[in-house]
Amino acid sequence: MKKIYVCNEQLNEDNYKMLLSSLVSYVPYFSLVVRETLTLDSKGQEVLDLLKPFLISEDNVSEWPGTKLYDGTAKLFIFILNTKTISILLDFSNNIFDWVQPSLPEDLCLLRNDKAGLFISISHEKDFYFELTNKEYIKLDKLLPQLKLTLYEHKVE
Would you say the C-alpha torsion 56, 144, 128, 43 has a positive or negative sign? Predict the structure, then answer.
């Protein structure tokens, strides 16, 4: 069973770089989104062009990890995660929240083999979380203890 974990530390530039670099051996894919209702600047198009050789799929969707649109669709791009693609991502961003249109595609997510989200960001809302099994939590907590992951317990009143 997967549970939601949040960081008690800011995902600063160093932690962001370490997160991407550390998970390359655990997570095979990542996704980016381009919303059809927003423009994409030349910088955003450049990153998509550089990532194109690593493209797995490109689909029009109304839902992706962390987001469900109630109107319209967006283009979801899924790419291979490897040292080359991480280098491209880091060349264009210093923080997870840099991934916001119009300058860049949105909502960088790290995906498992089955394309389910492990690390999920909703960039324009300045939000991110991890969806982890207990085994994944233990591994990630040992790998990146500086993130100070804690179980998110949502209580409805």
Answer: negative
Would you kindly state where each structural domain of the chain is located, as residue ranges? 11-125
pTM of the entire predicted model = 0.92
Unique residue bearing structure tokens 């069973």: 1
Q: How far apart are the C-alpha atoms of 132 and 127, rounded to whole Å?
A: 17
Q: Mind listing the pLDDT tens digit for each residue in 88-104?
A: 999 999 999 999 999 99
Q: Which phi and psi (to 5°) does residue 111 adopt? A: -120, 145
DSSP assignments along the chain, one per residue: --EEEEESS---HHHHHHHHHHHTTT--EEEEEEETTS---HHHHHHHHHHGGGEEEEEEESEETTEE-SSS-EEEEEEE-SHHHHHHHHHH-SSGGG--TTTS-EEEEEE-TTS-EEEEEEGGGTEEEEEE-HHHHHHHHHH-GGG-EEE------
CA 34 and chain centroid, separation: 13
Q: Are 19 and 157 in contact (CB under 8 A)?
A: no
